[in-house]
From TrEMBL:
Protein name, entry field: Uncharacterized protein
An example Gene Ontology molecular-function term: phosphatase activity
Gene3D superfamilies xref list: HAD superfamily/HAD-like
Keyword Magnesium (UniProt): yes
NCBIfam families named in the record: DKMTPPase-SF, HAD-SF-IB
Keyword presence, NAD: no
Family matches, as InterPro entries: HAD-like_sf, HAD_hydro_PyrdxlP_Pase-like, HAD_sf, Pase_PHOSPHO-typ
Record: residues binding Mg(2+): D14, D16, D198
Cofactor names: Mg(2+)
Pfam families, per database record: Put_Phosphatase (PF06888)
UniProt keyword list: Hydrolase, Magnesium, Metal-binding
Residues involved in substrate binding: D25, D100
Catalytic residues (positions): D14 (nucleophile), D16 (proton donor)
């Protein structure tokens, strides 16, 4: 986490087509020459199960975890995104990832670009390389075969992950942290949250945001259309390209830091005013020696 907050927001990024300019699953499949086979698997399996099965087939063909990492190193990542991440972090933002990709792909790309340390956490589909060297990818929310799934009724959420449920948890943690930091005399609002995304699965977490938060949908992508049809309570700040992403995001960060600084100055001024008003002149702190003689005396009324 960044060393200091100072009013800087919590920034939550989607990954595919938001941090990297591709779908990382498709990028790996295409790079390793398995596009047709993956398309065939998708005709019979949900996406998350299909990508896991595809990793199994690639392993059986002799492709290694290092081959997969190698393909991910070439995934397109704009220098504007790198600069935005580093600048937002330097300004005090906490950065998180909320993605329907998977931990192996995300970790490989962030490590290659030296960005892993800028993020305090990642919520995504878990992945690991098993003892045989085969990459396994599991759903974030287990579904099917007796599993309860995430329980969200919104049709834009895939069966393996409801980002809205994750966002609810993040916001709840933010509220609890704000309540714990509040003094008895004054309540403290949780940090502003900024969410960046592009796809249908990013709509549900956008709906969890409240007034004072921001959602940043990528123009020309499904999230933008969904928000246009039924906007969330938060402010909407779209972006068209990665230079635009950096400009819009850092503009929000600067504005939130300035707003917090102005509020702190106002609070400090109000506190100083209250202190001045409470100062008691020296000659009023104690009664003069003869003051009691000037006070009216109680009169006893006989029964």
């Amino acid at each position: 986490m960044a060393a200091s907050n100072g009013g800087a927001p919590l920034v939550v990024f989607d990954f595919d087509k938001t941090i990297v300019d591709c779908d990382s699953d498709n990028w790996v499949v295409d790079a390793l020459g398995a596009t047709s086979r993956f398309d065939e698997l998708l005709r019979h399996l949900p996406w998350n199960h299909a990508i896991d099965a595809m990793m199994g087939e690639l392993h059986s063909e002799g492709k290694t975890a290092e081959d997969i990492r190698g393909s991910l190193r070439t995934a397109p990542l704009s220098p504007h995104v790198v600069a935005a991440i580093k600048t937002a972090y330097a300004l005090g933002c906490e950065l998180r990832i909320l993605s329907d990709a998977n931990a192996f792909f995300i970790d490989a790309i962030l490590a290659h670009h030296g960005l892993a340390a800028y993020f305090s956490g990642t919520d995504t589909n878990p992945a690991h390389v098993d003892a045989a060297g085969r990459l396994r990818i599991r759903p974030y929310h287990e579904f099917g075969a007796g599993a309860h799934g995430h329980g969200c009724a919104l049709p834009t959420c895939p069966p393996n992950m409801c980002k809205g449920k994750v966002m609810e948890r993040i916001l709840r943690q933010e509220e609890e942290a704000a309540a714990g930091a509040a003094s008895t005399a004054k309540t403290r609002r949780r940090r502003t949250v900024v969410y960046l995304g592009d796809g249908r699965g990013d709509y549900c977490p956008s709906l969890k945001l409240r007034e004072g938060d921001y959602v940043m949908p990528r123009a020309g992508h499904p999230l933008c259309d969904l928000i246009a049809a039924s906007p969330p309570a938060s402010a909407v700040r779209g972006w068209a390209g990665f230079e635009d992403l950096a400009r819009v995001l850092l503009g929000i960060v600067d504005a939130e830091i300035a707003r917090a600084a102005a509020a702190a100055e106002e609070d400090a001024g109000a506190g100083a005013g209250a202190s001045v008003g409470a100062v008691v002149p020296a000659d009023c702190r104690t009664l003069p020696a003869r003051q009691e003689a000037l006070m009216p005396q109680a009169v006893r009324v006989p029964n």
